[in-house]
Design brief:
The complex is a heterodimer.
Chain A (H helix, E strand, L loop, with lengths): L2 H32 L13 H6 L8 H4 L2 H9 L15 E2 L6 E2 L12 H12 L5 H5 L12 H9 L7 E3 L2 E2 L9 H4 L2 H9 L1 H4 L12 H15 L3 H4 L1
Antiparallel strand pairs in A: 1-2, 3-4
Helix pairs in contact in A: 1-5, 4-5, 7-11, 9-11
Chain B lengths: L1 H39 L23 H5 L3 H10 L19 H15 L6
Classes of the chains: A mainly alpha, B mainly alpha.
Chain lengths: ~230, ~120
């Protein structure tokens, strides 16, 4: 073996060791600091008791759901995505005019440093429990709805009843959707709208039986929404 | 003597069925408390968490007058197929993929408990 080959072999060994260590770190962090609120194993809740006990989104299919770059960024500066937390029913109270979010019951998400966030994002990206659902989808970026996007989301399918389409506007029991496409893979959004129950049998989002073409248009609408600089507008 | 036998027989079945009846009621209330209250409210009065920006306000299930106008069959249909199925708002979604038909029947019974009413008054 010449010197060059030896150098390449050493580099490859160091790189694989470092990569392995990062993956181990990610798995350890998830196990030690995340598993008390997030399910890393699955399956999703099959009973209402299990649903009511859930404290954070299931992560056992995180690699099918999230964009890795967003996970890494968000874990370093976590912002609330679900106005009423998870499970929403555990975090509401009667108000004067209507039920309100009970902020006193919501807790801040833990914050990770850059190295930890990178390790966790890499580990989550490798978790593909629902890969078959993702593979069944094909995103079509040409199905842009234009002004019909909000019409579909709000008036035709009534999704805004539970989701905010901009900060402070829309329903509160579901996650905000104006950041959905920054967080989520297009194929996940397609699949989840097609059948929320395929991912989460007891979820409080109904299946509205949206035809495929309109699912494509809604996902393209969500992608357009996520391009807005919402922080600058607040 | 004969009537005592019948009484014992009836008592046996009432005791046997009580847990089942109670369980069915609990399941409907639990389903309502999980899925319906996000819009219809913790008190069932239509003032749920999501209503502020809704163009059509959810039905007040405690309002006997408006609930009397709906038959059990209509209530079943609107829960299973959504508001459009009875020419009402699209904001009431179809729950047919969430509940079984039996669960929806139980929910209809629970709605009658909430409104303290029946179809036609």
């Amino acid at each position: 073996m010449d010197y060059r080959s030896m150098a390449v072999a050493i580099c490859a060994f160091v790189l694989s060791t470092v990569t392995g260590a990062i993956a181990d770190d990610g798995a350890n962090i998830l196990k030690q600091r995340c598993a008390s609120c997030h399910d890393l194993q699955g399956p999703a809740p099959a009973t209402l008791d299990q649903l009511w006990a859930r404290k954070g989104p299931d992560l056992f299919y995180a690699g099918d759901k999230y964009r890795q770059a967003w996970v890494e960024e968000w874990l370093q500066n976590p912002q609330r995505i679900r106005p009423a937390g998870e499970f929403y029913r555990q975090h509401i109270k009667p108000g004067d005019k209507r039920d309100m979010v009970d902020e006193s019951t919501l807790i801040e998400h833990i914050k990770l440093d850059a190295a930890e966030a990178k390790a966790v994002a890499e580990t989550l990206a490798a978790m593909h429990a629902n890969e078959s659902l993702i593979k069944a989808e094909k995103f079509d970026p040409t199905q842009t709805p234009g002004p019909m996007g909000e019409m579909l989301f709000d008036k035709i399918y009534g999704c805004m009843a539970c989701h905010q389409i901009e900060p402070g506007y829309g329903g509160l029991s579901g996650p905000e959707v104006y950041t959905a496409a920054r967080r989520l893979k297009p194929e996940f959004m397609l699949s989840y709208i097609r059948s929320p129950q395929a991912w989460d049998p007891k979820i409080w989002m109904p299946n509205k039986h949206v035809p495929d073409l309109n699912i494509q248009k809604i996902v393209n609408y969500l992608i357009d929404l996520s391009k807005e600089d919402w922080n600058a507008k607040q | 003597m004969q009537s005592n036998k019948y009484r014992a027989f009836l008592l046996y079945w009432v005791v046997m069925l009580l847990p089942t009846i109670a369980l069915a009621g609990e399941a409907a209330e639990r389903n309502y408390n999980t899925y319906c209250i996000q819009c219809h409210g913790m008190a069932g009065n239509g003032a749920g968490l999501n209503v502020r920006d809704m163009s059509v306000q959810p039905r007040d299930h405690t309002d006997a007058k408006s609930m009397e106008a709906r038959s059990d069959a209509e209530l079943f249909k609107v829960v299973k197929e959504g508001g459009l199925a009875i020419n009402k708002s699209v904001l009431m979604p179809p729950w047919g993929d969430t509940f079984t038909d039996d669960e929806i029947k139980d929910l209809v019974k629970y709605l009658r408990v909430l409104c303290k009413c029946k179809h036609g008054g």
